[in-house]
Amino acid sequence: MLSKRIIACLDVRDGKLAKSVKFVDTRDIGDPVEKAREYYLDGLDELVLYDITASSDKRDIMLDVVESVAQEVFIPFSVGGGIRSVEDASKLLWAGAEKINLNSAAVQRPELIAECSYAIGNQNVVLSMDILRVGTSRDFPSGYEVVINGGRTPMGIDALDWALRGEELGAGELVVNSIDADGTREGYEITLTRMIAEAVSIPVIASGGAGKPEHLLEVLTEGKADAALVASMVHFGEYTVSGLKQWLHDQGVKVRMRW
Amino acid sequence: MAERVVIVDYDAGNLRSVQRACEHVGIPAEISADPADILAADRVIFPGVGSAASAVDTLRNRGLDVALREFYFKGNPLLGICLGCQIVLEFTEEGRRDCLSLVEGVCQRFDFRDRVLKVPHIGWNEVEIVQDHPLLADVASGDEFYFVHSYYTVPTHQKNVYAMTEYGLRFCSMLGQDNLFATQFHLEKSGRMGLSILNRFKEWRC
Hints:
Number of helices of chain B: 6
Helix content of chain B: 25-40%
Radius of gyration of chain B: 16 Å
Strand order of the largest sheet of chain B: 2-1-3-4-14-13-12-9
Radius of gyration of chain A: 17 Å
Largest sheet of chain B: 8 strands, mixed
Structural class of chain A: alpha/beta
Oligomer: heterodimer
Largest interface: A-B, 28 and 37 residues
Shape of chain A: globular
Distance between the termini of chain B: 19 Å
C-alpha cells in the first residue's frame, strides 16, 4: 500500500534558507543544503526547494544549491520559483532536481504546463497553486480564487477550475497552498484540499498552515491529501520529521517508517 | 584496471540523478548514447523515465537496442531501473511497442475503472521479496522504495520475479534473469535502501 508522504519545503533566497510568514516578512534561518541533508537522514520522503530570490540576476545561485543538494539527498526533490520556460526547467533538472514546480508563470501562460510536460514528462511537472478564500459567487463557484506573486495579485480564476485545467494540461501533481492558512500554524485548509483532491485524479499535496501533528493527520485523512507539506514546524526544531512520522504511524496512517 | 560502468543515454529522464547515486556508492559511471561504449562496458545501468514508446523508438534509432541485447548475452551485469525494467521484457502496452525481449513477459497499464486509486502510481511503497538475490542482501520485505509509473511488468515466469508490490493489485516490482536485474522503482531516489542495491551491483559477480 502506498504511503502518505511528508514533504519539507525550504524557501531559499539568495542561496540562504528563509521562512516566510504570509509571504511578507521573510528571515534567513540557515543553510538549505545542510537542512536538506538533516531531513533526508531523518526520514523525509520528499523535498521542495522554493526560490524566492527577488532579483533575477541572482537566480543562478539556486542552481548551485540544487546541485549541492542533489549530491547528498537521495529522495525525490522538486524546485520551484521563477520557472518561466522549458529552458529554466531543464536547467534545474540537469542540476539535479527530480521535478519542477510551476506557479505564477503557469497562471499567466497556461501552455507552459503543457510545454514542460511534453519536454520532461508529466510525472515531473508539479503545479503549485496559491489560493485565497473569497466565498462562493458566480465568478468563484468553489469559493476560492487563484492568486499569484505570493498572494498579492488575485487572478480572477476559480481555484477548482484551475486545478482541473492544470491536470488536463499535463501537471503530474498539484500543490494546494492556502494563502489564508500559510504561516498561521493553525492547520491546513481542509475544505479546499479535499475539494481538489476529490476532483482530480493526480496526487494532491496540501500546503500552508501546519503547526501541530494533528494538522497533518487531519489533512491526510479528512482532507484526502496524498502528501503533507511542512515548513516552519520542522525548521525551528519544534518537531522532527521522524517524530511526526512516528506519531502519524501510531495514529494508523501509513507512512514510510524504515529508511 | 578500473571497471568501466556505463549509464545508457536515450533521452529518457534524469540520468545525472543515477550518476550521482553511483558516485555516492563509489561507482565512477559515465553517461553514453554510443552503442560502442555499451559494448565496451563491464557493467551497464539502463535507467529511464517517461514514455516507453518514445524510449523504445530512440533506442532503435541509436542502435542501442542491438547493443543492449549483445551486452546482455555476453553475460556482464546489467541493471534496469523503472522504464529500463519495463523495456527488457518482450512487449509494452504503452504505444504497443516490441521491446528488447531479454526476459519473457509484457508490460501492462494500471487500469482502475472505479478510480479508487490514482494513476500514475507515485510515491513510496513496500516491496515483498519473494526470492533471494545478491543485490538484495541489504533489503528486507517491508522496506519502501520510490515509484513513479503507470505501467507494470508481468514476467511470464515466476522464476524471474524477485519482489512484489501492492497497488490495487499485486505487481512485480523487481525482476531478474542471469546477469540482469531490474527494479520498477527509482532506486536512485529511494534513500539508503535504494543505494544499497546500487552498492551491491558494484561488486556483483554473476
